[in-house]
Amino acid sequence: MKSLFVPSAIAALAIVAAALQDDANLEYKSLHHRAPRPQASGSTSSTTPVTLPPPSSANTGAPSTSVSPPLTSTPPPQSTSYSFSLASTNPTAVPLSLITASQSSFPTLPLASTATVGAIPTFISGAPALPNPATISPANYPALDKPPPTDSALVQQWKEEVANSGVSIPDHAPTNPGGCLNNTAIASDPNRCWWTCTGCQDSKDITQCPDPLSWGLTYDDGPGYYTSNLLQYLDEKALKSTFFVVGSRAISFPATLQAQYMGQHQIAVHTWSHPPLTTLSNDEIIAELGWTKKVIKDVLGVTPNMMRPPFGDIDNRVRAISLAMGLTPVIWTRNAGSTFDTDDFNIHNGVTPVQKVLQNWQNILGSASTLDHGFIVLEHDLFQESVEVATGYILPDALAHNPPFKIQPVVSCLGRSLGDGYIETNNNKTNPPPNVSAGGAPAASDGDATKSGAGRQNPLNFMVVSTLIVGVSGFALGLLAMLRV
Ligand SMILES: *[C@@H]1O[C@H](CO)[C@@H](O)[C@H](O)[C@H]1NC(C)=O
Ligand SMILES: *[C@@H]1O[C@H](CO)[C@@H](O)[C@H](O)[C@H]1NC(C)=O
Ligand SMILES: *[C@@H]1O[C@H](CO)[C@@H](O)[C@H](O)[C@H]1NC(C)=O
């Protein structure tokens, strides 16, 4: 039997955190100081508190504001008691009490030096030399973090490619803002197969790894200031990940993106401006995905062939457009109503305490132990807090897991080479592109969605609904904070 819980014989670090949320909320509203704050009441920890590095204003690349202002009045979750145990933590982990929305900026670490102009990625057969990131001029791209215009020549060209792809795009209207709750008829329509609302998935969606104990490691929304810190930890532990890149961030951090790629991580498409895709028109979806494919190709020389919809917001229309553009959707695992979402993103927004994120992580491990296949978890590298919880707690705990996990990029957990993660280097024989279907039939259509989603449709999951709503506003607010330098 696969036990995913730590045997008590292992020197397990038990942490029981009873966080008084109202106090925590008040605290971050009123205290903008750098001094370590006391550990949440009731918690015990055997980690060695780190000596805080000096403030990072002189550190290149780090945000110059030291404290993110409180950005949301969303009340924290009702539960005030969290309990989890970790098999191991990083001895230099930032103490949990400091991982809050209002923490000081910590220094960012330098990038590995392997990404130089003209370097050949020898780990991918047939990959072109690395472009010069200095040639990336923001003036040649749409405005950052806004839905790109749909009337440009390039978007017209991509529309034509989609129209000629042989993939039939279902004639569905965009969803209303407000997620499943504001779209009840659409949400329950099996022809829509709206994952967000019901967990419905298509046979082409990637939501898990085939092998038990295999974890397709993923981080979303970067590259950002703290991606380099995550990369350094991954390097130390010889771990490789998949990164779902926001096109606008690739403009802001091209050197980081090159370091991720040259570090043999998988680079994949998120979107240009991180909208919930089901709310967009076909042309807007094409523009979001097309510009993200293009900027990644301009920075790396290769184009990803996987995408993740922001907030997991995907239905048959979004699926078909993605597949027509050569992008296979990757979401994250759901099992018996529990989603493999750490909610690490919402620490930065002051919505979710780090203790809750670690409890989510423990719940994910417990759920994973019941699976006869591997899994994919939602985590983020855009913000300091989520990088700290990944490198300090989640990854060390996963590495100490017994039986061991096989932690790898999504393309690798599927048994494919890293080169199969890019359109130009993909082996089209063994891994046919999603917009080329063997029988000439459309790659996605209304009809086949329920078939493959059989047994996977959950009743409307209102927690997921609220996550989408909180997530959309949280992303905008968090980004605002990061960009306010
Ligand atoms: C599939 O998508 C790729 C990438 O967009 C494109 O180059 C190719 O022409 C498409 N193939 C078909 C059959 O549409
Ligand atoms: C629900 O949808 C309607 C129609 O698009 C829109 O006007 C309204 O703002 C939406 N409500 C919420 C809560 O988003
Ligand atoms: C696979 O097909 C794509 C076009 O869709 C092409 O760009 C690529 O070079 C092909 N892969 C290989 C290894 O030739």
TrEMBL record:
Its main location: membrane. Its cofactor is Co(2+). The keyword Metal-binding applies. PROSITE patterns: NODB (PS51677). Gene3D superfamilies: Glycoside hydrolase/deacetylase. Residues 33-84, 424-452 are annotated as: Disordered. One of its GO terms (molecular function) is metal ion binding. It holds the Pfam family Polysacc_deac_1. Its EC number is 3.5.1.41. InterPro entries: Glyco_hydro/deAcase_b/a-brl (IPR011330), NODB_dom (IPR002509), Polysacc_deacetylase_ArnD (IPR050248). Keywords: Carbohydrate metabolism, Cell membrane, Cell wall, Cell wall biogenesis/degradation, Chitin degradation, Cobalt, Glycoprotein, GPI-anchor, Hydrolase, Lipoprotein, Membrane, Metal-binding, Polysaccharide degradation, Secreted, Signal, Transmembrane, Transmembrane helix. Residues 1-19 form the signal peptide. It is a lipid-anchor; GPI-anchor. Residues 213-406 form the NodB homology domain. It comes from the Eukaryota. The keyword Metal-binding applies. Residues 41-50, 437-447 have a biased composition (Low complexity). The chain crosses the membrane at residues 460-483. One of its GO terms (biological process) is polysaccharide catabolic process. It is found in: Cell membrane; Secreted, Cell wall. It catalyses: [(1->4)-N-acetyl-beta-D-glucosaminyl](n) + n H2O = chitosan + n acetate. One of its GO terms (cellular component) is plasma membrane. Belongs to the polysaccharide deacetylase family. This is chitin deacetylase. It comes from Ephemerocybe angulata.
